[in-house]
Specification:
Blueprint lengths: L2 E3 L5 E4 L3 E8 L4 E7 L8 E8 L6 E5 L6 E6 L4 E7 L6
Antiparallel strand pairs: 1-8, 2-7, 3-6, 3-8, 4-5, 4-7
Length: 92
């Protein structure tokens, strides 16, 4: 099930092996994808990627996120994005 993003707030996607971001409406600005390690690891955030001025229909795939912490996607302005998890998250 895809997560629909329409605002410039950080959206927590959760744990995932990877993610697929589908751009449903053009965005003048950026889409930033980050991972946040658990507080046990210091709670530090790491930038996975930044995409500038994505166009309608563009798909961005990030793989190899397992074990990196929770994934968050932030757009720099109002947008229309769909984010899908790739692969299962870790089992606790």
């Amino acid at each position: 099930m895809a997560i629909h993003i329409t605002t410039n707030a950080a959206t927590n996607v959760g744990f995932a092996d990877g993610i697929l971001i589908q751009v449903n409406a053009a965005l003048t600005g950026t889409i930033t994808t980050t991972t946040v390690a658990s507080t046990i690891d210091g709670g530090s955030a790491s930038t996975v990627g930044i995409v500038t001025n994505p166009t309608v229909g563009q798909q961005i795939v990030y793989k190899g996120l397992r074990g990196q912490g929770t994934v968050a996607v932030t757009a720099s302005g109002n947008c229309d994005l769909s984010v899908s998890k790739l692969g299962p998250g870790p089992v606790f």
